[in-house]
Amino acid sequence: MLAAVVVLGASLSTATAGKKDKKKKTQTEQVAETPAEEPVVLATFNDSLSYAAGKTATNGLIPYLVQQLKVDTAYMADFVKGFSAATQHKDDPVYAAYQAGVQIAQMANQRILPSMKADFEGSDKAIAEDLFYKGFMASLMRDNSIYSDSAALSFFDKTNKEVKEQVAQEYKQKNVEWLAENAKKEGVQTLPSGLQYKVITMGEGEKPQKDQTVEVKYEGKMIDGTVFDSSYKRNPQTSKFRCDQVIKGWTEALLLMPVGSKWELYIPQELAYGERQAGNIKPFSTLIFTVELMGIEASKDIKPDTKVDLSKALEGKKLPTIKRTVKKK
After folding, report:
1. What is the pLDDT of residues 5-57, one digit of tens each?
2. Contacts of 2 (CB under 8 A, 6+ apart)
3. Which single residue of 130, 138, 227, 304 could bond 221 by disulfide (Cβ 3.0 to 4.6 Å)?
4. Could you tell me which of 5, 10, 16, 28 has the C-alpha nearest to residue 82?
């Protein structure tokens, strides 16, 4: 079975302690055992220094074991047994291989299997944990009695691709239907581009131009309510950017908003990120934004009627000497 691979420690379970086992012990069981501890005798200064160094080296270790490695402190005796075995068998290739198996099992438990399971969420396909591990070990032992490695890879990749396409199309259609229903709600306006918006507050300031920089507060979420970004959670709460350097739906809305406005935008995927994954935003996602237009940044260009004090501009600078040639009559 799988226990030898997925065990999360290098020791035997304490649940079997005290039971007599007349069967011959496996090589793995032999290396996992540790002899009885001998009494500690500190005969020299260096003996004391060494012992104290060992004690000092554990500073902060238990919180690390609990928080990072998820070790239950009720089983510290088992942890110590595994630690002792590892120090005694550090040059043993059998024990090294066994320890590598434990580490890869942890990686498979915590990262590989959950990631591969997630690929099939939302579909009628799923990965069974026990058969996943059997296939995993069969490949390592070069057992091709059911699948060759290449055949397994081809079958998995083909199924994975089909499922992703199916899930994506279903999600895309769900977003289309959501927009259609949203358009019927009171106060929601729909533009020819497909952009929808609802005025919460209509400001009385100027409207920005495409190449101007605006200052806004905003929150963005998907149709399931998942918030993927919010300036309200940062300090300062405002963000600045040019109107033409954001997604199309934002640009179109900003050019219609007077300063002081607060609108809710409903941006179809064609005016957002389309079929691309953008951080936590799924492909084909409709994006819902609450946007407050706080202000427009003044242009840094000097206007024609602006007066410039040249004496200050040239302050501290040496003016070039201009030579003039006078023609004699």
Report:
1. 333 333 333 333 344 344 445 544 544 454 556 899 999 999 999 999 999 99
2. 130, 133, 134, 137
3. 227
4. 10
C-alpha distance from residue 318 to each of 205, 284, 295, 312 (Å): 45, 62, 41, 13
Query: What phi, psi does 216 have (nearest 5°)?
Result: -135, 160
Helices 149-182 and 129-140: crossing angle, nearest 10°? 140
Question: CA-CA distance, 249 to 270, in Å (whole number)?
Answer: 9
CA 122, CA 132: separation in Å to the nearest integer? 19
Pairing outcome for strands 196-201 and 188-190? antiparallel
Contact 72, 2 (CB under 8 A): no
Distance CA(83)–CA(33), nearest Å, equals 11
pTM (predicted TM-score):
0.61
Whole-angstrom Cα distance, residue 290 to residue 198?
A: 10
Instruction: Looking at 58-147, list the stretches that DSSP marks H as alpha helix, in order from N- to C-terminal side.
Output: 61-67, 76-88, 93-107, 113-118, 129-140
Query: Scanning the structure block, which residue is given the tokens 């003039």?
Result: 324
What is the full DSSP assignment across 275-322? TS-BTTBPTT--EEEEEEEEEEPPP-SPPTT----HHHHTTTPPPPP-
